[in-house]
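Lab channel / #folding
Pinned by the channel admin:
"Please post every new chain as: sequence first, then the structure tokens as a reply. Keep commentary short and put observations after the output so the thread stays searchable."

First post following the new format, from NK:
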Amino acid sequence: MKLILNGGGEGDIVKSARAKLNEVIDHNKRALYIPFAWPDSTYTGCLEFMKNELSDVDFKGIDMVISTDELLKVNLSDYSFIYIGGGNTYKLLYQLKVSGCFNKIKDYLTNEDGIVYGGSAGAIIFGLCLDSCNLDDENEVGLTDNTGFNMIDGYSLLCHFTNRDINKTLESEKYLLELSKKIPVLAIPEEDTIYVDNKQIELIGSKDYYIFKDGIKYTKKISDVL
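Reply from TO:
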């Protein structure tokens, strides 16, 4: 299992994440893109954007599924990796869970040594739960079971941290300090990426990341061990 979980950035600021992806994938297969978090369910323009975003990664092309029915029919092991994009995290997790695709992806990772690149919402779902992004995303789908894949050593995840205005950052920080009395939270900026190789976790990127635990905020350098 390999996870490349990015803080929501794109273009040059996440070149290190794409370099890591390029390092671990099978270059002779196609990629599969899951855009279900995106608010426009026609997903117009999503595939072209993703082709441009991954233009410096060496693989045989990219396919996009636009429904959970399509995803259920796909053999995930036929692909070099899965890319799960950003948008509304609750919408994404809801669709994966009610359809059975959640278990399909979990099996791909744990039993088929799968590779997933997740950006923003596509990264947050691999944490303990979605409580970490309550201030960022509206639960417009009425999701009741917001537990994620829990593949980041028991942490919930928040992306885009410190990339927005100071008031939003302070609001998020206050909320995360209180939440961390119940669950630990890993908050990363758009420039940073969590790389999980089975049980080994590495942070790559260019900015500090933050751990909220037991009501305390810890500032960490990329070189620090999680």
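NK: The chain has seven helices and eleven strands.
TO: also worth noting, The first helix runs from residue 15 to 24.
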